[in-house]
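Q: Here's a chain of 204 amino acids. Please give me its 3D structure as tokens.
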Amino acid sequence: MSQTLAGTEGLSTVADLLHHLGDVPAERIRLRPHPGTATAADVVRINECKNPLVELVDGVLVEKSMGFYEAHLAIVLGHFLQEFLEEHDLGIVVGADAMMQLAPGLVRLPDVAFLSWDRFPNHQIPREPCPQLVPDLAVEVISRSNTPAEMQRKRREYFDAGVRLVWYLYPETQTMDVFSHDAGETPITQSESVDGGDVLPGFR
């Protein structure tokens, strides 16, 4: 029988679980496999159907929150990044269905992610569906069911895993928050531009 992941052992109620995950709405939590026992293999199996995509947090399957408009914005940003990388061979860009195992019991699918060639020995991109990889840049387009606590937890997980730069896009206000592990948070308004810093030098 599967063992419950350590991060969920002290939880006794559904409310405790939801709070632990960042006050995620209950309708986004999968009960099978039992919370705390899910694995990366379960993520791969479910995401093959892509309706909806799920992430793995402390052995709990959490449905990704992303609407039609948010998906459009992610594709547009990914297009700009891909165009830049075609001229500056720094690495690759992937979209929201790219599963990455950041740590045991933790699989995230950023809406857009950049991974430098330093992440790939001999520039060989893994063929397995959910490799143990950490992006250099993780981008999240914030949807209505994303809670502040959930996004704070996700940002902490990204930096703990070794992500260097995190962008949060807010469609409702047409603003961004740029986070880096060494420079903190920088808000970006609609009239301002964002650059790639040391992660994507020259991108703007």
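Q: Can you summarize the key feature?
A: The mean pLDDT is 93.
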